[in-house]
Amino acid sequence: MKHSIGALRHRSESKGSRSSSDDIRDADNEDTTVVEPEQGNVLSHIISQLRPGADLSRVTLPTFILEERSMLERITNFMAHPDTLLPMPDIDDPVERFVAVVKFYLSGWHIKPPGVKKPLNPILGEIFTCYWDYPDHTRGYYISEQTSHHPPKSSYFFAAPEHHIRVDGTLKPRSKFLGNSAASLMEGISYLRFTNRGKQRGGEKYILTQPNMYARGILFGKMKYELGDHSVVRCPENHLTADIEFKTKGWVSGTYNAIGGAIKNDKTGEVLYELSGLWSGEMFIKDVRTGQKKTLFDATHAKHAPPKARPIEEQDERESQRLWLPTVRAVHAVDHDTATTEKAKIEDRQREEAKRREEMNIDWQPKLFRRVQAGHGAPEEGEEDLEWIINANLDTNDPKELTDKILSIYPIVPGQKPSSEQAESKPSHTQQQTPQQSAQHAPQPASQPAAPPARQQVQQSAQHAPQPAAPPTRQQVQQPPRQQANLIDFDSRPSSAAPPEPARNVNPGAAQPAQSSSQQVPLSQSTTVNPPKGSSLMDDDLSHDMSKMNMHTAMVPQGQKPLKRADTDTNEVDTFVDAAED
């Protein structure tokens, strides 16, 4: 029997699809979310854990606010509307093509589960891959990895080879506690490219940023979800910019989920179009020159296309759906005690891994992404904000060749098997190794003990590279997977964890690296899983802000001024109210 997280979410997604039409009606009533009955008990859940001398940084949030997927998977919302995605590169007029990009950008925000839900925080080295089967019998491919934990950074790559579309991005969410609200400040950047357009290397480039996310009423009152602040879509080559404001509800007026903005020519300063509407409903675009206003995108009737992923049995223990399967099952079954326990196991393992790397003086490096080379004349010139980019040479305009290269990075489609040629990690492009460093990374005979570790940069072992394997484009330095990764074996977890990993296709004639007890310790000896009350279900930034609060005083003291935010266009101060005061 094959396990699938998608099957667990089937009912939730059906509700989510239905709620799109409800959102527009709810927005008129200033209530855009479907609130679960338990969500009114967030404050009581927190207070129940408070004891004299309690460490507030260890207070847990209830698991009913968790979405049944990782942030790495949630990012795919932006690619879930092929009807807005695929036609873009074929539009000849640059202004019309830019408008199509804005439409694509705005089409993914309505995709969310009912209520106020927070995706699972990816652990360091977590990987998620997926694909889409398009109506024209082509495919889109997505690869992502958690490239940093402190601060959190989720790096991702997407391509639709036959349609000349490529996306590179890194998301850097930062949590902030605002009294009765929590904010996820969505820092980071994405680069969308049309490889069949433009004069620059790599194709015509579009720069995308994201709005911030707010959860209102997390301590008292009704919980609500909002997007807020400004985001930008910009095409430097064509001198076009869209400044889009996701509006939070005002103190006495306004509505939820509203957007506004304009598209202008950066060279002349001329405003070409105005944007308005609801990101959860119908959005409009007005041609300033003609005064004509029409629908840009209608989320009310839109049907998104969720991605497809390999079966759980084919996934590595550090891939999102397999990693979080016990937690997701418990959340789906509304078994919050089990969900908290399973989540704590994973988080405690991550802390133990970080501790052991520190003890062994080892720097962790991603498996599938490398540092960008952003200097003058470098491959990613001017893209230093991206920080990480897929670690593969994908410079080809041939769709078939590009597809083969993408599939050689990591398994994406069902049935892909590890390749012996790609089973070892590849050195980062940004690292220059001396002969002495290369010798340090060379494989050791099984009988030879591992040398004491120097301060070094290591990558996770590419244990699941796929077939067919692309010819190596650079020298590969083979490294013993377990020694170099220095990761706890997730297959030593308790029986309540995900299904065991299937046997890997390992070359029986290859020398196996020695297992060093200082680097690979069974879980039962290396760490003790803390009980649920000792695990933090909040982001570290959020926990830090909570720990500074004086919980012995009223959460909203009498006479406190409402939260305000200055509009970046008009410099006027907007005041918005938490849901508790509706």
Radius of gyration, in angstroms, nearest whole number: 24 Å
Low-confidence stretches: 6-35, 420-456, 460-538, 549-570, 573-582
What would you call the shape? globular
CATH architecture of the domain at 5-310: Beta Barrel
**What's the end-to-end separation, in Å?**
48 Å
Report the sheet-strand fraction. 15-25%
Q: Which class of secondary structure composition applies to the elements?
A: alpha+beta
- The helical percent reads 10-25%
Question: Number of helical segments?
Answer: 14
Classify the fold: give the CATH topology of the domain at 5-310. Porin
Largest sheet entry: 13 strands, antiparallel
Total beta strands: 21
CATH class of the domain at 5-310: Mainly Beta
Global mean pLDDT: 75
